[in-house]
Each structure stands twice: as C-alpha cells, then as structure tokens.
Amino acid sequence: MDLSRALEWWEEWQLRVLVLGSLGIQCHLAFFASSRKTSIQPMSRFFIWLSYVGGDTLTIYALATLFNRQRKRHYHSADGSNVIEVLWVPILLVHLGGPISISAYNIEDNELWRRHILTTVTQVTVALYVFCKSWSSSADKRLLLAAILLFILGVFKCFKKPLALKRASFNSIVDNFQYSTPQMTTEHREVELEKYIQKARDFVQLNKQDPQTSVPSRLLTPKEKMNTYKHREELSKPDKLFVDYAYVYPDRLDKLKSLWLLDKENTYDTLCVGLSRTFNLIYSRLFKVDGGNRAATGCRNRCPSPLVYLLHLLLPIIPIGLFHGSHKEAYKGIDIKVTFFLLYITYLLEISATLTTVSYHTEWSDRIAQHNLIASLASNRRHSRLMGIAEFLQCKGLLDTYFCLKPCYSSKDITMLVRRHVKNGWLNRIEDVESYWRFSDTRGHWALERNGCEGIIWSTEMPFDESIILWHVATDLCFYSQGTCPDSECARLSRQISNYMMHLLCTNPEMLLPGCRRNLFIIAYRELEAILQGDDATSLLDEHQLVQKIFSMMEPKKGFVRKARELAQELMQNVDERMWEVIKDVWIEMLCFSAGRCRGYLHAKSLGYGGEYLSFVTLLMSHAGLETFAERQQRVLLRLPKQERVRIAKERIQEEAASNQGTDPSTPQGMVHVKEEENAAIPPAASEACSGLAEQEERAPTTSASQHGECVEIVVLPKEQSVHPLFIFSE
Questions:
Q1: Which stretches of sequence are listed as region Disordered (predicted)?
Q2: How many CB atoms lie within 10 A of CB 611?
C-alpha cells in the first residue's frame, strides 16, 4: 500500500521535482563554476563536474517526461495543469543552454560541439512537439503569448552553448587568430632571427634598470597610467602560445618591450589576467577572439548593439507580466507557485550572467602543487594501516597524490625568481643566435659554471627525469641535514620548486618533458624502502630521521639514493654558504627548461582543472621573447658564419634606423618606439572618451625616466589613442 502511494505521489510530482532540480543545478553552476580558476577542494570540483554533466541529463529527462505525458491522452485534467506545464518547456531549453560561466568542463568537450548541436536540435524539436500537442484553442491567450516569447529566448539560449563550444574548439581558435606573415624568404630567416636578437639586446642594454615597484594609481600621471595600461593589455590577451603558434620576430620584440617596462607587481598581475582570460576563452562564454587577436568581453561581445542588449534584459520580463495577468485560478496552486519560482529565478540568473559579463573576474590561483619522495615514505610509515587498506582497494596512488603533501602558495615569489633569471639572461648571456639557443637549452649548467661547481655538472647531463629525481632527493638531504643553516627564504623556495617538479613527474609527466618516465618515482621510492629494511615500523617516522639514516649508510647501493647523497655531500662541503643559491638557480633553470618544452595544448588542457604553475613560467618566457615549444620545433638552420650573420643583421638595423630618422626627423636617437598597431589593445570606447585629454597633452608626446643619470625616453601612444583615467584599472 505504501509503495502504491509512493508511486502515485511520484507520478504527480515527478515533473515538478525534475524542473526544480534542473533549476537548482543551474544556480549551482552559475555561482560556483567560475571558482574552478581558484584553489578549491577536489570534492568541490567534483560537484561542479557532476552538475555540468548531470544538468543536461536532468533537463533532457524532464523534456522526455513532458513528451510522454502529452502522448497519454488520459492525462488531460480538468484543472488545466497540462497547459501551464507548457510554460516550463522553454524554461528547460534555457537550462539546457547552461550558464555563461561554463560552456566546457574539459578541453575535449569543445571538440564535441557537433554532438551538442544534434542534441540541441532534437530537444528543440521535442519541445515544439509538446507545445503544439498540448495547447488548446480555448486556453488563455496571454499564456500563449508568454510561451511564444519564452520559446524565442529558450531556443536562442539553447543554441548558444554548442556554438560557444565550436568557437572554443582548437581549430576554430587557430582560425580566428589574426596571424602576421613575415615578409622574408627562407634563406634570410637566420638573419632575421639575428636582427631580432640584436634589437632586443640594444633595448635591454638601454633599459638595464628594473622599473620601480608599483606606486598608487592616484600618484601616476595620465600618461604613466596609459603606458602601464597599454603594456598590460598587450600581454594579458589570450596568448597564441596556447595553440602552439610561433610569434614572428617583430611581435616577439613588442612583447619583450612591454614586459621589460613593467614592474614586478604588474608583471605578475598581467600573467594572472592572461591565464584567466585564456580560461574564459576556452571554458566559458565570457570571451571570444575577434579578427585583431583581441579577446573581447562584456556587453560588446554578447550584445552587439544597445537594442539587442535591452531586448536581452527586457524580453523575459514580458512573459512574467503576462503570467501575472492570466487567469491563474484555473490551475493548481502548487503549479502556479512552481511557475513563478521558475520564471523569477531564471530571470535573476540571466541578469547575474549579464552583470558577470560586464564585470568579469580576472583572478587566478596562486597554488603550486607539491609532491615529495621522502615525505611520502614518512607519511606511509606513519599511516601504515591506512595505506595497507588503500593498497588493497587499489587507491593508494590517490592517497599519495592528495594527502601526502599540502600545496604551497609561493607562485608570486617563484615567478619573480624566473623573471630575474630571464632578465639576467638577456643582459649577460644572450649575444647572438647561438647563445640565445644555449640559454633556452640550459638546465642547470649555467648556474653550476657561474658558481664554480664544474665537478657536479654530471648531475645535469643525465636524462632530464633522472636529473629531477637526483636533485630532488639531494635538495631534501641538504634541507634536513644537521649543521646546515640555510637562508630560510632561499631554502624554502628551492624545496618548493623541487617538490613541484616532482609533482609534474608523478602526475603530469608529459608537461614536464615528453617521454618522462613516471615509474622513476616508484624506483626511487623502493630504494628508500630497501634502506629501511629491518628497522622498526615505529621508528624513522619523519624526514629528519630518514635523512640521517641515508647519511649513516656504510655501503650504499647503486641507484638514485647513492648519487643523491654524493651530490648533497659535494654541495655541503664545497659550495658552503652559497649552497642554497646554487640549488635555487639550478631549479630555476630546470623549471624554465621544462616550460619551454611543453606543448601549448597541454597548458590549455590543464587550465580546465585549475591549471599548472608551469603555464605561468611558459607565458613569462614567451612574453620575454625566449623560445617556446613551437619556435623550438621550427629552428632555422644556420648557414652563414657567425660574424657575417651578425654584421648583416646590424647593417639592416642601421638601415631601418636611418629610414625611420628620415621619416620622423623629430625622433631623437635612442628613443624606444612603440608600434601604433599595438594601440588596438585599448578599447575603442576608451579612446573616444579621452579625446579631450589627448588634446590637452598633444604638446607632450614623450615621458622620461632618469636611469643612473641617463635619460631614456619612451614614446607613448599617439594622441588619438589616449585613454581617459576612468578606463585605467587600478590594482
């Protein structure tokens, strides 16, 4: 009897539960989907994925339930509930379109846009069938008009999702970017590369002094605000790096200049904005790429004109008003409440989506994942019973990944180390094509040679994944050894980079370097276990005790642990007080080496699950004019002798300078030029709004900065492209 009552209740409430459940999922996605860019718990990320996948399934099931109800002729009730349910059909179509904050959960979802179009066409057809079959000629005309208006909105929203997936697919992004075609023949490529390097060297030598730390926006002049804004916009656009595109040399030089003239704070913030915008381009409907390679956002993108913008906001209000004025007494009270709830909440979600488009967030997570070999062994010994159960259930790897070591939040500090390394490279190491390539290929050699550690260069000449294991264990041995008093900041950052590289080797070896072997971690782990054979399970439960055990071995066996102990002893005995500086520099070079060899597609894919810090480094190196993965795959073959190539490049630079001097005789020599086409990064609305400011400043087209008594002038934007202070985003 109870079962039959439950079935009767479900038969009556089934559709209401489905539509309200669909609405709840849309609310969850609207409020939490954008949090994927920040540091959230794995369980929260799982619920976002479940809502993304289950939302479409629940909506389709609700439409199928409506379809089946209309096929049952005996379902027509006297209170007209089947008529009011027709208003729920277009609302379900709106839900099927999903919120603006998430169009794809994984990058593979974008490639399935054809399947989503087929699903959309099918569901729209079902919705129209239900509408035509269920509506009677005697029904309220106001409800009919409300349903038609909602259908227009629902079909429009329903088709936006597959179209957004198509626009964010890999080939579509590549096609939508505007590419510059270099005007040169194949035999002149090496000269063009040399010319780019010589121009870059001239620029960095002229601007050796690091820009001052950011000052409050209110203390900057309009020109300084405009200059900073221009450089930030140039670097924060969704980068072609993520589609494995090799920038032409003039574009590389422009990016290098923009990055070089930004201070530390603006550099890091710009990288965060760039990653955030790339995420929005691939995984949401907040961005698209226009023909000029600018990522547009806000109402300008979603609503091409004010009329369309107003229609987008006002169209849902009309059905709500029509439903208010209809003869609601003919329907069940619970159905009226459900309808009001659906209409109002769905409309509020649309308004919040529009406001989100206008005031989008550009934050990015500063989380850096960590994984440590010795800490994993110590943790397993402390929780031996739990790990035994996990191994029996085949989930020990999951516990090792998520519970052995907490992430760190030193993204900004490590990024500044990479920035300093890149700047030192341009100032002190890069002189020509050969040195430009050697700098990109170094993975610790330069740091060891610079500090007189030629005796341990062997540790960086073995396969890269083996070097990672070796230096990782050696770093921990130095960190926990007795008698060592390292600089806390330097030691902390060195160990965090070491743990992050080990994380890449264990969980994402393809990003670390194609061909890296994940099983090396297991091999090294078993070596450590072999050292502890015969010891009491309750002893050696922390990293300090394990390190002392490793150093106390009388006859170490062959393997990673033996080599790591030799390396650590060499560092502690011979390098002395400079030990942590050497270790830090080696890890920075290894980090940059890995970043320059990771495909852009893998970076874009990692953004979907929170991103990898390696994307920060890759983006910084790309902006700094260094080689990326795509550029390395297309290295030019050097045929000319070095001296001749450098001579030809310098002659062409002088010819271009003379030509520019002839075109603009008022430009002093040594002035840094900024291409006028870069001004496209400034919104057109901003240019129009600040025309008055430009007229006031047309008499002062340059700004100067004193550097060691030397005045360096930087040409700012032409007056017709100036930016009003209202359009400057202060931090």
A1: 685-708
A2: 22
